[in-house]
Amino acid sequence: MSFDYQVYLLDGMTVNEAVTENEDGSYTIFVNKNLCESKQIKAINHALNHIKNNDFEKSNVQNIELVAHG
Fold it and tell me: How many domains does the chain have?
């Protein structure tokens, strides 16, 4: 599976990461700038897994996170 994405580190986020699908089919991952580097990488990987699992096409957020966290 191939997809384009960009990552932005943002200050003031209340969550570790957020993902949005863009109009061109690419994704933007926003990561909390205040996390340590290892947690930023973990947050990016978490977001990438959501993209790879086509979670944006699913409707049950609780179930998506349950599967994502094993």
Answer: 1
